[in-house]
Design goal:
Helix content is 5%, strand content 60%. It is mostly beta strands. It contains six helices and 48 strands.
Length: 789
């Protein structure tokens, strides 16, 4: 396979040589929003006379090379008025475009502009979700959440009730490459997984890739979620603020030097701790809060050089303080946990020529978890401090060469230094004069080198590439070649057939007891004993565009094999504190087992991005199985996040200029869980020899219970379904626009299962064990107020 990919890449380059040898000229430039000068990624650029075109990259840059002549070039982007420019090419031309975001609500189909069509893109399993749609989707407690919106797409499982984790095509939360302005984010959850950390007010674009991964992406098995922050308004000072039941937020942006430099700062904080504090007793107080802060600066040194500095900072903290007074002696205890993310990216865009674009990024990312506890009483003091985390420093370079309208060449390199701290424990006990310290760190290096070739020949498109991945840690080096291939054939106007193959390797692992992405999950590297995760995925399907109805239909099937997936051994835990002396000689590698998995299914999506009525309908039919030698007797078992059927319906209707209606309905087969089949009681006799003469003993009889759980995940929760509804009232004032939003989560009050437990009820007839369900979210109304100025 790898040899075949290399031959194909060489062939594609040879085929295009005759095209490049002809005398041609280039049209290149940046596409911006008219009012704010914000650079727009993913703008569709189409030339009807050649039935071809391109799209802007993540930095709003485009380049097209054409023979001399006259052309009508159309620029279209969802939510913006299309623009058509007539150009006469007799030399290289610089053409910057400004798109007007103001559009009417009327449904207008302009065939000449040829808006972006899925049938004409060679990429499979990639979905772009407009930020505006995400902001209109109903949400729990009115908190607009990027990940909750992504969970509504086919192929993305929702996990448990309220969980914001992504389970893409059978993969776990650790198998998603989550990128914010080139920086990876390792824990994307707030409030123990109920919300994600991403504030949609600060985002410009969101793109989800589930398969057919281009060679420029690496390091994860299941998906890539790439998010780009807004640059900031270069024309005037602007802002937006919102107040909800759970949190408040503020966004400020504006020019530093008009048309040349701008800033953006966005903050969000919950006030649960403030609201609950007055109701707590003086001797027992606690609280929880989280906050986000996004910031970005940019400066245009010239048309050929632009610099961006962006960062994200966020923290969740839960804490408690208790005091108890007895005989004029006060005992105190305090503790809690916090987890935090921080990212920083310094980027430099450079144009070598009108055809060659480069981006250089210096990247920092870190994630830290801390659990702490301190107790003081009349006998002394006990302290515990537990830390874990991961820190990245990376350098990344990407190059684009727009050879012609038929051929785009990409190449790049990235190197990352990972510093893992799976366990760092400090325990002190003044009563026993005990002082225990343990810190485990792993320093590793991950690198990648890739080449991509994007070729268009009449009705045929191909993206062929290869990525060389390297990882070294614990004096062990791993090198892998990862071939990637995506094909698209246009059967007829608006209908295409697609196929893709991708091999991926993942060198870092997430150890989880629960599988729902709690902050206590640990990031660890591959080592001599722990091999990298590996997957191979094939996918095929069809894409149909119906321009007259503004609809796009996609149907895809996929099959994915995974190897070297890590999991805890039965009964193992992330926290080894029961016997610290033993823990000193015990590492996380002794606590895990490796296995394999397979996932396959069919996904269908009907999407409408423009018009008064927008939204989508998604359906997934899938199977996901896992196999570990030390779990379930070495037999395959259903993954917890396996769901046979998954349906999502999203509808947003612009009733008028002032009123927007929105609703979502979701349905999913119940998650697979393990439940006890029965309990067996018996008497056990244990000898007691302490304090007795040698040779003498006494037997102590005690009662014990053995629980039989049967096969792993052999039961299913009840099916999950829920209806959410929201209505927004907009009003434009002289200097600002305000929006009131009323929402209802779980409109028909469905009692969806969060977890089950066995409850024993005692009576004269004996003990009866009953299975009981816990549900956490009944019908929940919400109200929020937003102002934009």
């Amino acid at each position: 396979m790898r040899r075949h990919i290399t031959i194909l890449v060489t062939f594609l380059m040879i085929v295009t040589c005759h095209t490049y040898a002809q005398q041609k000229y280039s049209v290149s430039g940046y596409v911006r929003e008219k009012n704010s000068r914000e650079l727009l990624p993913g703008v569709n650029i189409y030339i009807a006379s050649i039935k071809g075109g391109t799209v802007t990259n993540n930095y709003g840059f485009y380049s097209i090379t054409l023979p001399a002549g006259s052309y009508d070039i159309s620029f279209s982007y969802i939510g913006y008025q299309p623009v058509i420019e007539n150009v006469k090419l007799n030399q290289n031309l610089v053409l910057d475009i400004w798109l007007d975001p103001s559009i009417t609500l009327e449904e207008v189909v302009i065939s000449a502009e040829k808006a972006e069509r899925a049938s004409e893109s060679n990429r499979m399993s990639m979905i772009s979700v407009p930020v505006k749609q995400i902001r209109n989707i109903p949400a729990l407690l009115g908190e607009k959440d990027v990940f909750k919106a992504l969970q509504l797409l086919p192929g993305v499982q929702k996990g448990s009730e309220g969980n914001s984790g992504l389970y893409v095509r059978g993969g776990g939360p650790d198998q998603n490459l989550i990128i914010l302005d080139d920086a990876p984010v390792y824990n994307a959850n707030h409030l123990f997984g109920f919300f994600s950390i991403f504030n949609g007010d600060a985002l410009k674009s969101i793109e989800l890739t589930k398969g057919g991964f281009p060679a420029r992406y690496g390091g994860r098995l299941s998906s890539v979620v790439e998010m780009t922050m807004k640059d900031g308004n270069k024309q005037k000072f602007a802002g937006e603020a919102g107040i909800g039941i759970l949190s408040s937020r503020l966004v400020l942006e504006g020019p530093i030097i008009k048309d040349k430099s701008s800033f953006l700062i966005s903050g969000r904080r919950t006030y649960i701790d403030v609201l609950t504090r007055p109701f707590m007793p003086d001797d027992s107080r606690g609280g929880y809060y989280f906050y986000d802060l996004n910031a970005k600066l940019n400066y245009d040194f010239s048309r050929k050089n632009k610099v961006y500095l962006s960062g994200y900072f966020g923290r969740d903290k839960f804490q408690f303080v208790n005091s108890y007074t007895y005989n004029n002696q006060t005992d105190k205890s305090k503790g809690g946990l916090y987890w935090q993310n921080a990212t920083g990216t310094l980027r430099w865009n450079h144009l070598f020529t009108s055809r060659v674009f480069s981006n250089t990024s210096l990247i920092y990312s870190s994630y830290d978890l801390n659990i702490f506890n301190e107790e003081k009483d009349r006998n002394g003091t006990y302290k515990l401090n537990y830390n874990s985390g991961i820190r990245d420093l990376a350098l990344k370079y990407d190059l684009e060469y727009h050879v012609s309208t038929k051929y785009l060449f990409r190449a790049g390199v990235q190197t990352t230094n990972h510093l893992f701290t799976p366990t760092a424990i400090i325990e002190k006990d003044s009563q026993t004069l005990y002082d225990f310290k343990k810190k485990t760190t792993y320093n590793s290096q991950e690198s990648g080198l890739y080449v991509e070739n994007h070729l268009t020949l009449n009705k045929f498109q191909a993206n062929a590439g290869i990525r060389m991945s390297h990882f070294i840690a614990d004096k062990k080096s791993y090198v892998f070649a990862e071939p990637r291939l995506s094909l698209n054939y246009l059967i007829r106007e608006g209908l295409s057939a697609k196929a893709a193959f991708a091999e991926m390797n993942q060198f870092i692992h997430l150890l989880s007891n629960t599988g729902i992405g709690l902050p206590t999950d640990l990031w660890v590297p591959s080592t001599k004993r722990i091999k990298p995760q590996n997957s191979r995925q094939i996918s095929a399907g069809f894409a149909q565009d119906l321009p007259s109805k503004n609809l796009t239909l996609t149907l895809e099937g996929y099959y994915k094999w995974s190897r070297n997936i890590l999991g805890y051994k039965p009964g193992a835990s992330f926290l080894l504190l029961d016997d610290p002396t033993e823990a000193q000689n015990f590492t996380w590698q002794d606590n895990v087992t490796a296995g394999s998995g397979k996932s396959y299914g069919i996904e269908m999506l009907v999407q409408r991005k423009t018009g008064k009525l927008t939204g989508w309908v998604g359906y997934t039919l899938s199977w996901t199985k896992l196999k570990f030698d030390e779990i379930n007797f070495g037999e395959y078992f259903w993954a917890r996040y396996d769901r046979r059927h998954d349906i999502s319906v999203v509808a947003i209707y612009e009733l008028s200029d002032n009123i927007t209606l929105s609703g979502t309905w979701v349905y999913g087969t119940g998650s697979a869980i393990t439940l006890p089949l029965g309990e067996y009681a018996g008497n056990t006799y244990s000898p007691i020899t302490d304090f007795l003469p040698p040779g003498e003993h006494i037997y102590y009889e005690y009662f014990n219970t053995v629980t039989d759980y049967g096969k792993v995940n052999s039961f299913r929760m009840k099916a999950y379904h829920r209806l959410d509804f929201a209505i927004q009232f907009h009003k434009k004032m002289k200097r600002h626009e305000r929006t009131w939003e009323l929402g209802i989560y779980n409109t028909y009050n469905r009692k969806n299962p969060f977890f089950y437990f066995i409850d024993n009820e005692y009576s004269d007839n004996g003990t009866i064990s009953k299975l009981k369900q816990v549900s956490i979210f009944p019908i929940i109304p919400s109200v929020s107020y937003n102002i934009k100025f």
